[in-house]
């Protein structure tokens, strides 16, 4: 005779699985209204001397504290991710600042992905597959070209970072592929913004704000688009093979 869990215990288990993602959504909404001024460029400019002094006195702890704060910002989808990237460059230079930023952002993204997949992802993926139609075809296409599509989502920021963490969780993407493509795909943009942050000392001295539009200039944008084209190449080749 097979023992079955009582309905109440099953429903409680389901609620517990959903709880982390629900808390992330609640923190994102609350943070959007309460933390925007505290996680801003103006706040960084105001506290820059204290941050530099702490970094010089406790470099290892500064790295750990910064990474923890960055992970929390990304994992809870709080405002200030761009400012955090600039701060990483300001405190630690292009290197190891870019590496610190990319690792922390990847860890935060993985946290969102796992929370979404545990709470809703498996059920959503199964319902899409069973329902058929355009959504099921999109899911099948993404699974067939997972590496390329996931890289494109990171290299070309047409999809907001938060949604780029959720969509793979809802269509059944593997954790390994999600983590690797996130890490690799955010490197170009991460290096650009970290380099901007590394030059903030001069920007502060002039009383100006950093030019974040640098990523849309030809010397920066064209190489990123070239990488995106390489990522899309396997998809194009598969389409050509099917068409012949």
Overview of this structure, please?
It contains 12 helices and no strands. It has helices spanning 7-34, 41-57, 59-75, 81-92, 94-131, 133-144, 146-155, 161-171, 175-185, 187-198, 200-206, 218-243. The mean pLDDT is 83.
Annotation keywords:
globular, 12 helices, mainly alpha, single chain, 244 residues
Domain tally: 1
Order of helices and strands: HHHHHHHHHHHH
Distance between the termini: 56 Å
Unreliably modeled segments: none
* Radius of gyration over all CA atoms, rounded: 21 Å
Strand portion:
under 5%
Q: How many distinct beta strands?
A: 0
- The residue fraction in helices comes out at over 70%
The geometry reads as globular
Number of helices: 12
Q: On the 0-100 scale, what is the average pLDDT?
A: 83
Largest sheet: none
Structural class: mainly alpha
Summarize the structure.
The protein is mainly alpha-helical. The protein has 12 helices and no strands.
What topology does this entry show?
Blueprint: H1 7-34, H2 41-57, H3 59-75, H4 81-92, H5 94-131, H6 133-144, H7 146-155, H8 161-171, H9 175-185, H10 187-198, H11 200-206, H12 218-243
Helix pairs in contact: 1-5, 2-3, 3-4, 3-5, 4-5, 4-10, 5-6, 5-8, 5-9, 5-10, 7-9, 7-12
């Amino acid at each position: 005779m097979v023992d079955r869990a009582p309905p109440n215990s099953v429903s409680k288990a389901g609620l517990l699985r959903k709880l982390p993602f629900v808390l992330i959504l609640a923190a994102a909404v609350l943070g959007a209204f309460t933390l925007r001024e505290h996680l801003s460029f103006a706040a960084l400019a105001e506290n820059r001397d204290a941050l530099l002094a702490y970094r010089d006195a406790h470099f290892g702890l500064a790295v750990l504290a910064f990474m923890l704060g960055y992970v929390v910002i990304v994992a809870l989808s709080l405002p200030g991710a761009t400012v955090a990237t600039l701060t990483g460059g300001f405190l630690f230079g292009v290197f190891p600042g870019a590496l610190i930023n990319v690792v922390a952002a990847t860890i935060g993204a993985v946290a969102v992905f796992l929370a979404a997949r545990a709470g809703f992802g498996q059920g959503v993926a199964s319902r899409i597959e069973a329902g058929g139609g355009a959504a099921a075809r999109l899911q099948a296409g993404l699974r067939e070209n997972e590496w390329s599509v996931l890289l494109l989502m990171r290299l070309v920021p047409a999809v907001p970072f938060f949604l780029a963490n959720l969509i793979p969780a809802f269509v059944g993407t593997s954790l390994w592929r999600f983590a690797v493509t996130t890490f690799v795909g955010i490197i170009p943009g991460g290096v650009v913004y970290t380099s901007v942050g590394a030059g903030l000392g001069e920007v502060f001295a002039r009383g100006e704000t950093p030019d974040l539009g640098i990523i849309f200039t030809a010397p920066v944008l064209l190489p990123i688009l070239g990488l995106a084209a390489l990522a899309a190449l396997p998809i194009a080749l598969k389409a050509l093979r099917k068409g012949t």
